[in-house]
Design brief:
five-stranded mixed sheet; six-stranded antiparallel sheet; 562 residues; alpha+beta; 5 helices; WD40_repeat_dom_sf; TLE_N domain-containing protein; Methylamine Dehydrogenase, Chain H; nucleus
């Protein structure tokens, strides 16, 4: 008989062996779980990558579909006879709001594909009218061409829909990440909007196939464009909110007394920060540029407007204001001795330029002021605020008169009629509003499908031009129900200014372009491209000079050529 201690030892050995066995099994299970975890992580990463790719593809597809729609409206539709144009455009409008069954002509839309993507699938029957189908058949390349889906991604305008209504400077550039451009809101959501170029040499891919991949289609399109004057339509007239129709310009649309033919660069004003505001003194002696935290003053006298030399000078002075915040608007008094300054701060400052001292710090009770205006007698200032209100302030008595509520999101731009009886304002709530200054109440409202970034009143008070986030310029009649829609910009329209003659106006955008338009129908007078986004502009009182402020951290002074 074994001693009890040996039995205990053997039992302990058996238990130890059993425990080792269980431990080995547990380790094996842990290894399996680790492998499964790694596989699940890989699967999740793959899923996330595929999901991101699909979302990007959907966005690209929707963008291409919008480009195709614009291409049809601007280029192909004008080739139709007058009888077919209206029905063609009406069919496109109906297609945008058609049900899935109508869009598929009875066939169901594949799950997960938004209606905006249908333009990417040329083989799906759209149910368009015969004129539209004929257009697609005429210009689509032969099956199996092998070209069409490639190409560079369209530019994106980074415009967000803010929760707090605050509009900020976006110091990134789509082409050059080291320079600043454009305008953005705070919360990081972005929307892309791009319009096909109206320049026939820049027409690009549309609807998932390259219209110019087929040389025969290119030749047919070139011939058709030649017959209609060699240029796609970029201006459309809309009456009573009806179907946009290409504008027929008069013979003198781009010539005549007071109609400019181009610009000549005269001075570069190297501010050192993004120039979000720029204005020219009434006597053309000085230019004022607003950047981050300061307004710089430039002497532009003795500039040879007829020569070819581009001058660069240092500023003669600098006004330190709004601390480290971007300045968004500078408004000079007529005598040139006083300037109003507003921006991404809760105050509007009034400076005496003769002594270069601040004489007023007006608290607005809002996060930012995006635009300023002065009454004709220079007694009242009007300020667009980030909270959507418009502040009216009596400068002489130094007291607030009232606020005009109405915009549900930030009020981004404003301008007064020449006699000061009406105030026009635009907002991030996609609306333009007209205010009666005698009654100080809203008397008209215009709704759009896009945020409003810039606005200007024609001196004859018959037209108001509006720059949009969706790249368009809308020209509204103040007396009738018609308007013009201009589509030359390829990104959001950041600033806009009428000439004092009222015969033309300019607009600038995140596409680096300055466009000059004939009032009101928008015949293109000239186009100038800078290196980065053009955030601000002004025209001198005698219409001889134009200044632009850009993301290239400088302003540029141009002489207007007639």
């Amino acid at each position: 008989m074994k001693p009890s201690y040996l039995e205990s030892l053997e039992r302990i050995k058996e238990e130890h062996a059993e425990m080792n066995k269980h431990l080995s099994q547990q380790r094996s299970e842990i290894d399996k779980i680790a492998v499964e975890k790694e596989n699940m992580t890989r699967s999740f990463m793959t899923y996330a990558e595929v999901s991101t790719t699909m979302r990007n593809d959907l966005r690209k597809a929707e963008e291409q579909n919008k480009r195709l729609q614009d291409f049809i409206i601007q280029t192909l539709a004008p080739m139709l006879s007058q009888d077919n144009q209206a029905s063609c455009l009406a069919a496109m409008e109906a297609f945008k709001t058609a049900s899935p069954r109508e869009n598929g002509n009875g066939a169901a839309i594949p799950p997960g594909i938004p209606p905006g993507m249908l333009g990417m699938f040329p083989n799906i029957p759209f149910g368009l009218n015969p004129a539209m189908s004929q257009l697609f058949n005429q210009f689509a390349p032969p099956q199996g061409n092998g070209e069409g889906a490639g190409g560079s991604e369209p530019k994106k305008a980074k415009l967000e829909d803010p929760d707090d209504g605050e509009l900020e400077i976006d110091v990134t550039n789509d082409d050059n990440p080291s320079t600043a451009n454009g305008t953005t809101n705070k919360n990081g959501r972005d929307s892309t909007n791009s319009v096909a170029s109206s320049d026939p040499n820049m027409l690009r891919q549309a609807g998932g196939f390259n219209l110019f991949g087929d040389p025969h289609a290119s030749a047919r399109l070139a011939a058709a464009m030649s017959q209609m004057g060699g240029r796609p339509a970029y201006s459309f007239k809309i009456v009573d909110n009806g179907v946009p129709t290409p504008t027929t310009f008069p013979p003198d649309a781009q010539k005549g007394p007071g109609i400019p033919t181009g610009l000549k660069k005269k001075m570069e004003l190297n501010h050192g920060e993004v120039v979000c505001a720029a204005t020219i003194a009434r006597d053309n002696s000085r230019v004022y540029t607003g950047g981050k935290g300061c307004v710089k003053i430039w002497d532009v006298r003795d500039t040879d407007l007829s020569g070819t030399t581009v001058v660069s000078r240092p500023p003669i002075s600098s006004l330190d204001c709004l601390k480290e915040n971007y300045i968004r608007s500078c408004k000079l008094f007529e005598d040139g001795n006083t300037i109003l300054i507003g921006g991404e701060a809760s105050t509007v400052a009034l400076w005496d330029l003769t002594t270069e001292t601040k004489t007023l710090d007006l608290e607005t009770d809002s996060q930012a002021c995006y635009a300023l205006a002065l009454s004709p007698d220079e007694k009242l200032l009007f300020a667009c605020l980030a909270d959507g209100n418009i502040l009216i302030y009596d400068i002489h008595n130094k007291e607030k008169v009232c606020t005009l509520p109405g915009h549900h999101d930030g009020a981004s731009c404003l301008d007064l009629s020449k006699d000061g009886s009406k105030l026009w304002s635009g907002g991030l709530d996609n609306s333009v509003r007209c205010w009666d200054m005698n009654q100080r109440k809203e008397i008209a409202k215009y709704e759009f499908a896009s945020q409003v970034f810039s606005l200007g009143c024609c001196p004859d008070d018959e037209w108001v031009a509006v720059g949009m986030e969706n790249n368009n310029v809308e020209v509204l009649s103040t007396t009738g129900k018609e308007k013009y829609q201009l589509t030359q910009h390829e990104s959001c329209v950041l600033s806009l200014k009428f000439a004092h003659s009222g015969k033309f106006f300019i607009s600038t955008g995140k596409d680096n372009v300055l466009n000059a338009w004939r009032t009101p129908y928008g015949a293109s007078l000239f186009q100038l491209k800078e290196n980065t986004s053009v955030l601000s502009c002004d025209i001198s009182f005698d219409d001889s000079l134009i200044v632009t402020g850009s993301g290239e951290k400088k302003a540029t002074l141009y002489a207007v050529e007639y």
